[in-house]
Amino acid sequence: ITRYLFRNGKETGQDLRAIDIQRGRDHGLASYNDYRHYCGLHRADKFSDFGDYISQENIVKLSHLYEHPDDVDYVVGGSLEAHVNGALSGPSFLCVMVEQFYRTRAGDKFFYENGDHHHSFTHGEQQMLTYYITVW
Phi then psi for 54, rounded to 5 degrees? Predict the structure, then answer.
């Protein structure tokens, strides 16, 4: 994903990580440090404060690439985090994914578990749907 994306027969292609960093900047994503704070992690005042989830080797690299911890791109910092036990991402990516799934579900008035609408399933219908969904 760092050399062969959209290669189209050429020797090298594009770098997906670089594209993601640029997309984050174009869309005005907050910094990695801002997302840490939002997700309940300690806000870093110095690069070594990232040591709770980022390796020392990568902290040194970040300190050479960025002037201040507040400058670290979310995609970069989040990608460097050690994975949370039982997950395939670190705490800041996991936090944002959980938040997004919650908002998608809670904001969908037609989601089968969201009641209190004239078109909602009854409690019994919800239980039956839940049963069949978990059986599959």
Answer: -120, 135
